[in-house]
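BUG: 3D viewer hangs when loading the predicted structure for this chain

Environment: internal workstation, default settings.
Expected: structure renders.
Actual: progress bar stalls at 90%.

Input used:
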Amino acid sequence: MKLKMIYGTDAVLLPATVADHLDKATKKDIRVLLSLAADPMAQVDLEAALKAASGRLGLSQTEVETSLAFWRGTGVVLTPEDGETVSVPTTPAVPAATPRVVADKGLPMYSSEELSGVLEQRAELSSLIDECQRIFGKIFNTGEVSVIAGLVDYLGLDCEYILLLLTHCVHMEKKSLRYVEKMAITLHDEGVTEAKALEERLHRIEVMASATGKLRTMFGITSRALTTKEKGMIEKWLCTMQYDDEVLKLAYEITVDSIGKASLPYANTILERWYAEGYRSVEDVKKAIADYRSKKTGGGSFDVDDFFEAALKRTYGE
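Structure tokens produced before the viewer hung:
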């Protein structure tokens, strides 16, 4: 069996090295490259060809220029600005307001020459790299410096964002620039591109990491992974309701006393009821229980199931 190309009256010729970068190129990047390769005007008047590609592909001028910057960075194409050598774009590849999804396999890598060009053109990048090295407590190699440059150039992340991310990784004992890169791409693709949003997300991650282990032990979940529903309940207790260990322990104890076993859904019902009633601390809950007891006819014993009856019925549909 043989493959035959049907060229018709026209053909597009691309460098074989394009195939080496397809795993990192987005669909938009490929469309822009094909459009420019098929337009003879690109070799005469690049600005006019970029404008034409924008209209032809339904992309903004910035999006077309961003994709061109990607191909320049790979060395597949040269522009008049590049001269005899390939350099990286002099402006961030993607504005922070319009995040660009990046392939999971990582950011494009810079050669030593390309890094030198970036450092010369971006005064703030040298200072950023120095501060990143201080946070990690080491001198970065070329590949690690390339990651920092890529976070700025290809993801459009600012210095505050990058420093927050590195500080978090050190705190979580993940002192690897490749881990930073992977996490940055994931956050970027989820739309977390501003420092404030990142700070909120990292806080949730750190709270979950420090408390989930204790809760797993408390509820006897030691040999299996948490389900998505269970993770959601725990995150709500810790990050939305912001309950401390004492409140969670009390909810656990009431759960076991009531049904004879540990149960995250049952404890969740109790905590939701407390939160809805405005109880924020152990003292609030104990006061509510004391008030309830004092109102029981004849001073009878406290019935936990009775106290949370309405919440439990809502949960189990009884």
